[in-house]
Each structure stands twice: as structure tokens, then as C-alpha cells.
Amino acid sequence: MRTINKFIAAAALCAAAIPAQAKVVEELAARVNNEPVTISDYKRAKEALTEQYAAAMPDFFKQKDAEAQIEKAALDKLVDEALLRQKAEALKIKVYERELEAGVGEIRKRFSRSPDGAQLSTEKAEAAFRGELKREGVTMEEFRERIRKQLMVQKLVQDAVKTRVKMPSEAEVKAYFDNINLALKGEEASIKGLDAEAMQDLLAVAGRFKEITAERLRLRHILVKVKEGAAPEEKKAAQAKAAALRKDMDGELAFDEAVEKNSDDQESARRGGDLGYVVKGMLPAEIEAAAFKMQVGENSQPVESKFGWHILRLEEKRAAQRLRFETVKEDLEQVLAQNGFATELGGYIKDLRKDAKIQVFLGEKKAD
User: Fold this and answer.
1) Which of 40, 261, 285, 360 is the most core-located residue (most Cβ within 10 A)?
2) To 5 degrees, how large is the angle CA 4–CA 5–CA 6?
3) SS3 216
4) CA 47, CA 21: separation in Å to the nearest integer?
5) What is the domain partition of the chain in residue ranges?
6) 3-class DSSP state for residue 129?
7) What residues are paired with 309 via a beta bridge?
8) What is the pTM of this model?
9) Distance CA 61, CA 7 (A)
10) Tell me: the pLDDT tens digits for 1-22?
11) How far is the C-alpha of 122 from the C-alpha of 134, rounded, in Å?
12) CA-to-CA distance for 184 and 320, rounded, in angstroms?
């Protein structure tokens, strides 16, 4: 659970979202001392962690107990945040008006663009921000108070935890780098001295470096969709449409025009069919087999997958690169420093839990 706890540690230092305040009596997930944790709070925390893991560590969900880990982590996150807030309030940590305004401003910035990324005017951005407050049933005063409390927690963690975290030595960073290289080569059995959680952390970091250093393709595609359970004649019609489209592209029909008018993948079509960079293992096997044989600037013949028929275009190909210590040294220093921070914060919260009254009302779960 060490990796999952890092998400919790990071969340303790930032205002992640506009909170909804309970306006009516609501079922509780837990109670931390005298502070209630509602079921809606718990559901939002669980959804947020699920999204973070889906983006950062999709393989995590292959574990049989992945959902149980997320559920426990979500509740732990809420309990830990409450304990940190309560400690900050007990210490009467001061948040100055300029700090509060800066914190509120950071959240406001998140509404400066529309969902499709377009820059909004000041008036429209403010309307979007106020609309979200209204949707969540939060007044501006309640929102500012929540930000103030989060800033109090940030100061508490800065003073009580961050100052105790030491930067790793070069020898420690080099040893970590060597272990990552072993993981990239598939030689995990040669890695010594790590417990199961530390190994999970290392493999997660190695996975990110694999994406960076492996052979990569920049792909675009046009999708002629085939619905699940489609009749044979529908499948045949989709294949014929894809074949005719590909034939037109041998003439005067440009890929940009073809994708705009014909692709059933509306999300990628808005980006000209761009799928971004992909490495082996990210795409369906049949798509991957065709893509990695293509030349830059080439359009493929129609390729079938469970989604339908794809016409691929290879925009860029990057050869596999060797992982060099000097190139990633600073990144690894930050990873190890974050590990140290998570350990220190975990110890600090563990001490807070010793003196706290924590009641959990979710199923048969018990408080730590």
C-alpha cells in the first residue's frame, strides 16, 4: 500500500477540488473525533483515487483486491485529512489574507478554459467557477473557509514533516537506478533488499521510464465503428466503407479531410485522429502488429479490431533509447525524496491516530 499512500500524501498538500458541504443530515462513512465524514465525501474520494490510478498505474487494477485497496485508501485519506486539519486548528496555525487569496486564485485558474481547452474570457471563467460552486451547493464563504483549512494543513506538514526529510545521497540514487535497469530488463529476481511494497514502487517507476525509453510511435487513426453484436451484413458494410475510404486516400482525399468527415471516434477526430505516443502493449494486438511495421507518413490498409475498422497513419517513430543515469538522476532524487516524505508523513499521522477516536461505519471495516 506504500504506492497508494503516496497519492494520499500528495492530496494532503493541495486543494484538489471544490468540496460539497452537507446541507441535510447525511449517512456517515466515519467519524474522526467529533468531525463527521459523509458517504458522499467517501464516494468522491474513491472516484478521485480510481481516476488517478487509471491514469498513472492502469496495471494496478489487475490485482484481485484492487477495489478493496482503493476503498481502504479513500477512507484512510479522509480520516488522515481530518486529523491533520484538527491538529492544524489546535495549533492555531495562521493563514494570512494574501495566502488565502492566492489559494482561491489557484482554484479559479482551473476554470479559465472550456472543456475543449479554449481560453475563456474573465467573465465566462468567473461564471463557470460560480456555477460549480452553485452546483455543489457551496457558498463563497464556505469555499474560502475550506481553502483556509487546507492551507493550514500545508503549513503544518511543511513545519512538522518536510523539514525532517533528507535528500538521498548519490550512492542511494545510483543503487535505485541500477535496480530500475534490472526491472527494465525483466530481471526482478536479481533485485535484493526490497520488501513487497518497495518492489511495487520500483516497478511502477520502472514502468514510467519504459514508456519514455521504449520505441514509440505517434499515431493517428480513422475509425469505422462496428457495434458490439452487429449483424454480419453490418460488419460487411463497415469493412466495405473502410476499404472505399482507403482507396479514395490513394487519390486526392487527404487524411485530415478523411478523418474529419468519416471517423466514428469523435474524441480523437477533434484532434485530427491523433492517438498520441504509443509503446508496445498499449494497443490491441492486431493494431499494434500493423502500426509497428509502418513507415513514417504511411497510411495503412484497413485493420480490424473489436471496435471496428481502423485506417492508421504513422506520423513519427522514435527508436528505443538507453536509460542514462545523468539524464534521470534529478528525477530519481525526487522520487526517493517523495518516498522519504511519504514515510515521514505516514509516521506523523500514525502518531495522530494513536490519540484519536475514529469510528468507521462502512460495512464491517474497522478503524486502524
Assistant:
1) 360
2) 90
3) strand
4) 17
5) 2-165+329-360, 170-213, 216-318
6) helix
7) 224, 304
8) 0.63
9) 16
10) 444 444 444 444 443 344 444 4
11) 18
12) 12
